[in-house]
From TrEMBL:
<dbReference type="InterPro" id="IPR004291">
    <property type="entry name" value="Transposase_IS66_central"/>
</dbReference>
<protein>
    <recommendedName>
        <fullName>Transposase IS66 central domain-containing protein</fullName>
    </recommendedName>
</protein>
<dbReference type="Pfam" id="PF03050">
    <property type="entry name" value="DDE_Tnp_IS66"/>
</dbReference>
<feature type="domain" description="Transposase IS66 central">
    <location>
        <begin position="15"/>
        <end position="94"/>
    </location>
</feature>
Length: 158
């Protein structure tokens, strides 16, 4: 349990310098932990192998700390929410969340994303064809320059 807490503390660090110091302390205890519990040896091997790439995410706004899509959406929503004073009611917050989820799912990744996902939205990466969805076109900025008469077939009338 102590090892798990120490490993988590490495990634709770807000600066690379702190993370590096914590990482070195954990590695210094490798022999002690492996002698007591040999099954933890692969944990240390994996940490050493992946550390050069993992440390790059600390203090970086471009590299996410996780590749879990759900966590990324929740984190982004939390960051966005912190910029507001709050919502008037739970219903307003729920409506905002629905719009946020749709925009997130339909907005393509930028040119500086990994090449395999560049220019594609999360739904396209999941295998969906979103090319005919007006909301997807709007998220790509394709509808903004259209004349109003061109939108007549796409946007429903109230």
């Amino acid at each position: 349990m102590a090892l798990l807490r120490q490993l988590k503390r490495i990634f709770w660090a807000t600066t690379k310098r702190t993370a590096e110091r914590r990482y070195e302390k954990v590695l210094a205890l490798r022999e002690v932990y492996v002698a007591a519990q040999p099954e933890v040896a692969p944990v240390f091997t994996s940490l050493e192998h992946h550390w050069p790439k993992l440390v790059n995410a600390i203090e970086s706004e471009r590299i996410p700390l996780t590749n879990n899509t759900t966590e990324l959406v929740i984190r982004r929503f939390a960051q966005h929410y912190q910029n507001f004073c709050g919502f008037h009611s739970i219903e307003t917050a729920e409506r905002y969340l629905v719009v946020f989820e749709w925009c997130y799912r339909l907005t393509p990744f930028t040119h500086d994303a990994q090449q395999r996902i560049r220019g594609k939205c999360p739904l396209e990466l999941a295998g969906y064809d979103v090319s005919t969805l007006p909301m997807a076109q709007l998220c790509r900025g394709q509808l903004l320059g259209w004349p109003p008469e061109g939108l007549a077939d796409v946007v429903p009338k109230p």
